[in-house]
């Protein structure tokens, strides 16, 4: 039995769909905070169980009979390590035989402020005695294609990444890596540094967007504080506006670059090209 947490999130839904296709006779268990949000998954045959990352006893119940578990990292910045520790303890108590964790590219050395909670979780997992696979996910291309609509509306793509190269991959590529690990294609006890096959600067991203949109959409590189102000003005909470701007600044220093191609080797195919991701995100014309 395979289970995954955060199954109603963007990555979780892709993992659940891929597991259903790969193992049609063995539907996965979706461990979710709000089962009502997983009604569509249940309609497809997914077994839905309710548990929150902070509720150890509920997690133990949700993991009953589970042999392989995917722990998708939480999104509550500053709270994640405590939450992940609760999940790991529950998995151990429930007798889970393999825990796959979605971490962050070079979590132990990254300049991204997201790194420490991931590194702490990795250490907790290694100390737990549970067999594990750590998937250090790089950036999702969707982190940038999600800004295409405002870029088209305002005639420019803005950021703070300078000429830093970003080896991102589509979220579906990282979902495929998680499925591969759950299916036994990853070496137990190994940490994988996952990123896209090719890297781009945000100026190159804007150039490809311009080509596909049929009009110039230049990249405008802003100081970190100015970019954060733009994001706050667009409605993002300060913690996320400041975080995104800071992550771009870290990208300018190489934090999102990797050329090891471990992701494509693990999933057995090339990662999704940037042009394809942009094409999928462009509004219908």
Count of individual domains: 2
Count every helix, treating DSSP H or I runs of 4 or more residues as helices.
13
What is the overall shape? globular
The CATH architecture of the largest domain? 3-Layer(aba) Sandwich
Number of strands: 9
Major β-sheet profile: 7 strands, parallel
User: In CATH's first tier, which class of the largest domain applies?
Assistant: Alpha Beta
The CATH superfamily name of the largest domain is: NAD(P)-binding Rossmann-like Domain
**Multimer state:** single chain
Average pLDDT taken over every residue: 96
Distance between the termini: 44 Å
- Percent helix among the residues? 40-55%
Output the helix-strand order: EHEHEHEHEHEHHEHEHEHHHH
Strand order of the largest sheet: 3-2-1-4-5-6-8
Runs in which pLDDT lies below 50 for 5 or more consecutive residues are none
Annotate the secondary structure layout.
Elements: E1 2-5, H1 10-22, E2 29-32, H2 39-43, E3 47-50, H3 56-62, E4 68-71, H4 80-94, E5 98-104, H5 115-128, E6 132-137, H6 142-145, H7 148-154, E7 157-159, H8 171-182, E8 191-194, H9 202-213, E9 219-221, H10 224-233, H11 238-252, H12 262-267, H13 274-281
Parallel strand pairs: 1-2, 1-4, 2-3, 4-5, 5-6, 6-8, 7-9
Helix pairs in contact: 1-8, 3-4, 4-5, 9-13, 10-11
Q: What do these coordinates show?
A:
With 285 residues, this protein is α/β, with parallel strands linked by helices. It has 2 domains: 2-137, Rossmann fold (3-Layer(aba) Sandwich); 139-168 and 196-258 and 272-285, UDP-galactose 4-epimerase, domain 1. Helices cover 45% and strands 14% of the residues. It is built from 13 helices and 9 strands. It has a 7-stranded parallel beta sheet with strand order 3-2-1-4-5-6-8, with helices on both faces. Helix 4 (80-94) links the parallel strand 4 and strand 5 (98-104). Helix 4 (80-94) packs parallel to helix 5, helix 9 (202-213) packs across helix 13 and helix 10 (224-233) packs antiparallel against helix 11 (238-252).
């Amino acid at each position: 039995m395979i289970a995954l947490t955060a199954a109603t999130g963007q990555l979780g839904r892709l993992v659940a769909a891929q597991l259903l296709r790969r193992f049609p006779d063995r539907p996965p268990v979706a461990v979710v905070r709000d089962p009502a949000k997983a009604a569509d998954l249940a309609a497809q045959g997914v077994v839905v169980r309710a548990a929150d990352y902070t509720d150890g006893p509920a997690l133990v119940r949700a993991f009953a009979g589970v042999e392989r578990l995917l722990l998708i990292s939480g999104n509550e910045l500053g709270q994640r390590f405590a939450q992940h520790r609760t999940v790991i303890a529950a998995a151990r108590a429930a007798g889970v035989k393999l825990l796959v964790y979605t971490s962050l590219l070079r979590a132990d050395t990254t300049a991204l402020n997201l790194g420490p909670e991931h590194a702490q979780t990795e250490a907790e997992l290694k100390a737990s005695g549970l067999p594990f696979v750590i998937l250090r996910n790089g950036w999702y291309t969707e982190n940038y294609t999600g800004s295409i609509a405002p870029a088209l509306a305002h005639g420019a793509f803005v950021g703070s990444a300078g000429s830093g190269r970003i080896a991102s991959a589509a979220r579906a590529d990282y979902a495929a890596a998680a499925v591969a690990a759950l299916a036994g294609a990853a070496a137990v006890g190994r940490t994988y540094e996952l990123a896209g096959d090719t890297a781009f600067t945000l100026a190159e991203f804007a150039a490809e967007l311009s080509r596909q949109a049929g009009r110039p959409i230049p990249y405008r590189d802003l100081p970190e504080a100015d970019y954060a102000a733009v994001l706050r003005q667009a409605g993002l909470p300060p913690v996320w506006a400041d975080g995104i701007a800071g992550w771009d600044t870290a990208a300018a220093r190489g934090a999102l670059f990797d050329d090891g191609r471990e992701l494509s080797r693990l999933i057995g195919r090339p990662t999704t090209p940037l042009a394809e991701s942009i094409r999928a995100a462009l509004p219908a014309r």
